[in-house]
Design goal:
This protein is mainly α. The protein has 9 helices and no strands. The protein has one domain: MetI-like (MetI-like fold), CATH 1.10.3720. α4 runs antiparallel to α5. The protein is flat and about 80 Å long. InterPro entries: AA_ABC_transptr_permease_3TM, ArtM/GltK/GlnP/TcyL/YhdX-like, MetI-like, MetI-like_sf.
Length: 232
C-alpha cells in the first residue's frame, strides 16, 4: 500500500481526526491544570521539606519526633490512599474540601515528606569544617546555615529535587481519581465519548513524555550553570 493510500484510508482518517481533535483539549489540560498544580504543590512541598529537614536536624527531641512521624506516615502510605482520605474520607467527619484543594494538600504533604530527606541529606553532606569556619568569624548557627551551608546544600540537592519535580508532573494524573480535571482527566472524558481509549491515552502519554523531556533539558542547563561555581 502506498503512503498516500494510507492517509486516504477511511479508518486512518478517523484515527487522525481523533488525534487532532483531542490534541488541543489535552494540551490545555496540561498547561491550565497539570503544570500549575505541579508548580503550586512543589513550591508548598519545598517549604514543608525545608522545615521538616531542619526539624530532623534539630537538637530538640520533640521536633525530631514530629518530623519523623510525619515522614514515616507519608512515605509509608500510597499517595492515592492519601488523596482518597482527604477527598472522600474527611467529608464523613464534616470536613469537605474541593478537588483542587484536596489535590494541593495531598501532593504538597507528599512532596514535603520525600523532599525533606533530600534536603536533610544535602545539608549533612556539607563538611563540618564549613560550620567551624563560620563560627570562627563570629557567625551564629542560624547565620552559618543561611549564608554558608544552605547555599552549598542547594547545589547538591538540585538534581534529586529536579527528578522529584518531574515525577510530580506524572503523579498529578492521580488527581483525576478525585475528579480534578487535569490532563489525564481530560483524556478520560475524551475517550469516554469516542471509545478509542488506547489512542487517546497514548496521546496523553506522549504529551507527558514531551513535557518531561523539556524539563530534563532545563534541569541539565541549570546543573551546568551551577557547575561553573564549583571548584574543580
Amino acid at each position: 500500500m502506498y503512503l498516500s493510500n494510507i492517509f486516504t484510508d477511511p479508518e486512518m482518517e478517523k484515527y487522525i481526526d481523533i488525534i487532532v481533535s483531542s490534541f488541543l483539549p489535552l494540551v490545555k489540560g496540561a498547561f491550565y491544570y497539570t503544570i500549575p498544580l505541579t508548580l503550586i504543590t512543589f513550591a508548598i512541598g519545598l517549604v514543608l521539606a525545608v522545615i521538616t529537614a531542619l526539624m530532623r536536624l534539630s537538637n530538640m527531641k520533640v521536633l525530631q519526633w514530629i518530623a519523623r512521624v510525619y515522614v514515616s506516615i507519608i512515605r509509608g502510605t500510597p499517595l492515592l490512599v492519601q488523596l482518597f482520605i482527604i477527598f472522600f474520607g474527611l467529608p464523613s467527619v464534616g470536613v469537605t474540601i474541593n478537588p483542587l484543594y484536596s489535590a494541593i494538600i495531598g501532593f504538597s504533604l507528599n512532596m514535603g515528606a520525600y523532599n525533606s530527606e533530600i534536603i536533610r541529606a544535602a545539608i549533612l553532606s556539607i563538611p563540618k569544617g564549613q560550620w567551624e569556619a563560620s563560627h570562627s568569624i563570629g557567625m551564629t548557627n542560624f547565620q552559618a546555615l543561611r549564608r554558608v551551608v544552605l547555599p552549598q546544600a542547594t547545589r547538591v540537592s538540585i538534581p534529586p529535587l529536579s527528578n522529584s519535580f518531574i515525577g510530580l508532573i506524572k503523579d498529578t494524573s492521580l488527581a483525576s481519581t478525585i475528579t480534578y480535571t487535569e490532563m489525564f482527566r481530560k483524556a478520560q472524558e475524551i475517550a469516554a465519548t469516542n471509545y478509542h481509549f488506547l489512542l487517546v491515552y497514548t496521546e496523553a502519554a506522549v504529551i507527558y513524555w514531551i513535557i518531561c523531556i523539556g524539563l530534563s533539558f532545563v534541569q541539565d542547563r541549570v546543573e551546568n550553570r551551577l557547575d561553573k561555581y564549583v571548584a574543580k
